[in-house]
Amino acid sequence: MNGDSIRVKVFRFDPSRDREPYYSDYSVPFEKGMSAMDALDYIYQNLDGGIAYYDHAGCSLGICARCTGRVNGKPGLICQTAVEGDIVLEPVNKDKVIKDLVTRRGG
Amino acid sequence: MPIQKIETDVLVIGGGGAGFRAAIAARERGVRALLVSKGPLARCGASPMAGADFTLDGASMNGLGRDGDTNDSMDKCFNDIVTQGWFLNNQKLVRHYVETAPRLLKDLMDYGIDIKLSDQRMIFFSGLHLMDILLKKARSVGVDLLEDVMVLELLRRDGGVTGALCLGIRTGEFIAVSCRAVVMASGGWHKAFWPNTGMRDLSGEGMAMAQRAGATLGNMEFITFCCNIMYEPPMWRGSLAPYMLGLIAGGRLCNRKGEEFLKQYDPSVVKTGTSTEWNKSFISMASMKEVRAGNGFENGGVHFDRGEVSWDLMKMIATFIFPDWKYKAIDLSEWGRMLEAGEPIEVGPAVEYFDGGIIVNDRFESGVPGLYAAGECCLGAFGSNRVFSAITEMLVQGLTAGENAAAFAGGSAQVAPDASLVNALVHAAEAPLAGKGNISPARARRIIQERAHAQLGPVRNGNELSDFIAFLERVRANELGSLTAASPGRIYNKEWIDALELGNMVQLLEVSARCALARTESRGVHFREDCPVTDNDAWLKESTATIGDGGFDIGSRAATVTSMSPPGGKVPYLDMMKRMMESHSDTGGKH
């Protein structure tokens, strides 16, 4: 850690409970060479256990491709997108959301 | 919430290579087969992460039209697996491996596998490709498939297995499966350690629930750590790219003092221990010794750079393994720049393979009626150290377990799930949602993982193992019952999943640590700095662990010997390692 923090804004939506999507803001310690997944792991482990992103069977190493999402609007693998400053994390398709960043496949 | 009910003949738990091969085999025997995958189909567990090599004797390879060494034989492979395993192997399972492997290679070729390269006793392809082929085959023969479903507990009646209770992770719904036989193929329990080599689903519930159902776990202290795993930057943590490059191209390992620490060891051990997959045990042990002596770097690792290897050579090899500096979707070009400039990257051991597991016989029966096991979750062929191919192991065992489970299923009755048992299990599984405790599952997990790496890692001693066991007992007594998800929602609730996984990991860690404490010698991947001698007089035994009335019953049984007699005597660890390395047969090939 070099003492700096970044702001991480995350798309939130639980269709079974929320009327509409919203965003949560978190302050995450910046670490050189971190990925957007590292930021989510920090949030999940330290700030907000209720957040959902696909990792119960993810590889975090760019192989399984289940963590696909948008980082600052651009689609890519969340685990292999380097973070250099503040970020916004969203699902690729907001109409397919099961919860937060986890989406239905197909259809 | 209503519980979904599914009926099948053979339930296969686990969506890696062993599980798919078992499900295909069972289905081809004419029974219904349901494969339950915790993650995405063909994209979870360790199999898709693998390199991967399929290794068998060169003569059989040659007979199948591949260019293998005709002077090789099944007996030579047998010799090599047993000496690599320091004679702790179940020799019946070694025989099964060498004799069944040719059939599996023929199957893979019939399925249309694309072989990238081969040597005199192995073929090489990607794990992703293998899984794609197995998924296609499973679909073509009519295996039923479920994905993103976690199995929580086996259902039993009169001691025999009759089904399993599962949880749909995306829906939060319970599923009660009734079946006539189960093949456990749930892989390893990498998630109990940090760092690890990737996949986040491998939390050991299959082995843990088999033990709870009455199966015996064996040799749980033997855990293979892969060396030279990236510890930095965070985005690459867990990648085995430096391991692969180092194995083929060489390179240099240094400690914080700038010393090439491998130079203190016997040059012939270093040669075999860096240029073959003996590196996993040898370098992991040597690296961890440096870190424990205070000679490591910030992340608890050592430094890897290209050393004396010319940039031209290293670049040529690297671009063959990682075309355009891409390894799957990882962009390693920055590492390429560092290698060229002679800059080091921090690497170290990370948990990679579990040599022990559910004890099975050579029919892959666990001893619990109707419960079979195959692949990494069972105590397989490799004894105390694996150098040969885990890919071959999972496929040969999956095949035989699947066939035998199908035969068993054909002769047994379908039993509907016991409603009161299912309700009790559902009630227990929902406890973390009730919000009565105050312990965050994710934070508790991380503390346990880091401690497992430090105290149950490649270098162990009795005091630390005792300390770790006491810690796990406190976790079991004070924390597991208080794990609570912050959100009571059922849909993709990460904390709920974490809470359900953690008890299994704590169970396996405690079993492993207790077996490691009991084994007062060093052998294979189990190195005790306080007992640095391989004791062939007292310890040619498998550790065993069952659940008794008062906790775990730790015992032992003689290793299964058929044709190769083990040596006797007490031998210093590295001398024994050298003897085992030198016992390799005279054939070519990577293994």
Can you describe this structure?
- The complex is a heterodimer of chains A (107) and B (591).
- Chain A is mainly beta and 107 residues long.
- Helices cover 11% and strands 31% of the residues of chain A.
- Chain A has one helix spanning 36-47; strands at 5-12, 22-29, 68-71, 74-77, 87-90, 97-99, 102-103.
- The model of chain A has no long low-confidence stretch (mean pLDDT 93).
- Chain B has 591 residues and is of the alpha+beta class.
- In chain B, the strands form 7 sheets. A 5-stranded parallel beta sheet of chain B has the order 7-3-2-11-20, with helices on both faces. In chain B, strands 1-10-9-8 form a 4-stranded mixed beta sheet, with helices on both faces. In chain B, strands 19-12-22-23 form a 4-stranded antiparallel beta sheet, with helices on one face.
- In chain B, a hairpin with a 2-residue loop joins strand 22 (541-548) and strand 23 (551-558).
- In chain B, helix 1 (17-28) packs parallel to helix 5 (127-141), helix 1 runs parallel beside helix 12 (390-410) and helix 6 packs across helix 16.
- Chain B is globular.
- At the A-B interface, helix 1 of A face strand 17, helix 14 and helix 16 of B.
